[in-house]
Design goal:
23% strand, 15-stranded mixed beta sheet, single chain, Endonuclease, Chain A, alpha+beta, 2 domains
């Protein structure tokens, strides 16, 4: 990881904090806006962001919106028309294929959630453009995070957004020139160290996973990981078990509510080995967990779009920010500990080992289905 010094990083929790900051940044744009999102819902939040993009385009800002062809397959025609009329550009990453097709690349999606405004303010995280309360349990908001970046790292976010935009524009034969890249902001004297790490299917296939493994192997006191969809490969599981065996406190915060049947029950087939190694597993039940974050020891952290599962680590385009700063890591850790204290339930190792046979059978059936799908969809072994 190539950490850059001199950044100002702001942790944003849920859409309640993220969307006002994003819209404020878009409304202050003077030159360009890049926004990438997996889901762009036709709801109040979608209207809020689409209106801000249209306002920016209407005053001459070069607006680039990239949405995923599956996650945003129901992108509102009203939004599309409004943005086109204002002069904004909208591209679709891999338009959705038929749900009945068997093409292996259908799961290779653009799962990133990032934005960059004028090369001076950027956002990276796991929050889609969708109402916080748009979930089966609509009484409490889904739990998620993003980070606002001001400083030299914004240039890396802008470069990555422009690179993918040009690639998608080329494949869709819409090769309009981009504005020149703004100069990178000067480092701040009291700024924080951070690195942007992306995953694609070419040069950066395992960069996010390798970054996680590096920090897990270096941890000496504590590892706290929150992942909405937790289905790690063998290398990742071995690294966590090895950390626990050398005395590191390892805590996993995972989804407790059932959102997707197969991933939910397949992941439980792995819990026994982790619990036996002394790893603490907390299931979040207060609302839907959508976070993809981690804290390592006192001073390193990650916030991004990548889950610890084969979809994120083998197939999708993802983006995470890794932070080397005790203050930021401490703030994220405190937020996760609060979530555990107020909304999670621990899995007791003894009770887990003595679950009814039918429950264990469900886990292993789901695990078998998941492994079969992974083998079909991926071009490399998930290990």
């Amino acid at each position: 990881m190539q950490y850059l010094d001199g950044n100002r990083l702001t942790l944003l929790r849920n859409g309640e904090q993220y969307f006002p900051a994003l819209v404020e940044a878009i409304d202050s744009a003077r030159v360009e806006v890049f926004l990438e999102t997996y889901i762009f819902a036709n709801d109040q939040t979608g209207s809020l962001v689409a209106d801000a993009l249209a306002r920016a385009a209407g005053r001459g800002v070069a607006v680039h919106l990239l949405i995923d062809g599956f996650g945003a397959r129901e992108f509102s025609p009203r939004f599309r028309g409004m943005l086109r009329e204002a002069g904004a550009q909208v591209l679709v990453f891999r338009p959705a294929v038929s749900p009945w097709g068997l093409r292996r690349n259908r799961l290779r999606r653009m799962h990133r959630k990032l934005a960059c405004v004028d090369g001076r303010s950027a956002f990276v995280g796991g929050i889609n453009v969708i109402d916080d309360y748009d979930a089966p349990d609509d009484t409490t908001p889904r739990h998620d995070y993003a980070v606002r970046i001001e400083g030299p790292l914004t240039a890396a976010v802008r470069a990555e957004a422009a690179r993918l935009w040009k690639l998608v524009a080329l494949t869709t034969r819409r090769t309009q020139p981009l504005p020149p890249a703004p100069a990178a902001p000067a480092p701040q004297a009291d700024g924080q160290r951070a690195a942007l790490v992306v995953r694609d299917s070419l040069r950066h296939r395992r960069d996010i996973e390798d970054a996680y493994l590096e920090l897990i192997e270096e941890a000496r006191e504590e590892i706290l990981i929150a992942s909405a969809y937790f289905f790690p490969g063998l290398r990742f599981r071995h690294a966590l078990v090895a950390a626990a065996q050398r005395g590191v406190r390892v805590v996993l915060l995972v989804q407790g509510l059932v959102e997707y049947f197969v991933p939910h029950y397949a992941s439980r087939a792995l819990f026994g080995t982790l619990l036996d190694a002394g790893i603490r597993i907390e299931e979040y039940h207060h609302s839907f967990l959508h976070a993809k974050v981690a804290v390592f020891d006192c001073c390193r952290a990650s916030v991004g779009s990548s889950n610890i599962d084969p979809f994120s680590l083998l197939l999708a385009r993802e983006a995470n920010v890794f932070v080397d700063d005790a203050r930021f890591a401490g703030e994220l850790r405190a937020s996760l500990e609060e979530a555990i204290h107020t909304g999670a339930r621990s899995l007791p190792p003894l009770a887990w080992r003595h679950r009814p046979l039918w429950r264990r059978a469900w886990n292993w059936i789901a695990y078998g289905i998941a492994r079969m799908l992974i083998g079909f969809a991926s071009y490399e072994r998930y290990h």
